Amino acid sequence: MFTAAKLIAALFMGALGILVSEQIKPLLPEGADPGHMSLVNFCIGAVFGWRILGARAGRRTVDGINNGLTTVVVMVLVALFIQGMNEMLRRALLSYYDSPVEAMKVALDLGLRYGEYLLVPKIAGTLIGGAVLGGIVTEFVARRWR
Predict the structure, then answer these.
(1) Dmax over Cα atoms in the chain, in whole Å?
(2) Which tens digits make up the pLDDT trace of 28-74?
(3) Cα→Cα distances 57→18, 28, 130, Å
(4) Cα(137)–Cα(6) distance, integer angstroms
(5) By the 8 A CB rule, do 19 and 118 touch?
(6) Pairwise CA distance, residues 38 & 42, whole Å
């Protein structure tokens, strides 16, 4: 069911996905092609903002903050998996791997390497602050427009 809280949560988390993607791009090694990282992360954020944060809105502010943090954790895990798989597929098309098992191992390793960029204080702060603010805003919208 369409609600204002779901819409705001989707847009907010999608925007957070773009913001963090743009913060990560300068940290990538020279010559790395981020491709459609921002667009993919916007879509991930929008989907999970709608499905998790927006769907659970309408309770207390503390619950909103917890839901925001949960949404960001899920977003990060899914985004790391998708970005790792994307890079693995790009390399697989260039015949980097000898077997599918090796390719899957590398995909997980690439996802973990992308996760290292999230440990930069500026990016971690953006994720945590965005989660808290997103939860509070979504709760406010859920109470205001039922």
Answers:
(1) 57
(2) 888 777 888 999 999 999 999 999 999 999 889 999 999 999 999 99
(3) 23, 35, 16
(4) 11
(5) no
(6) 6
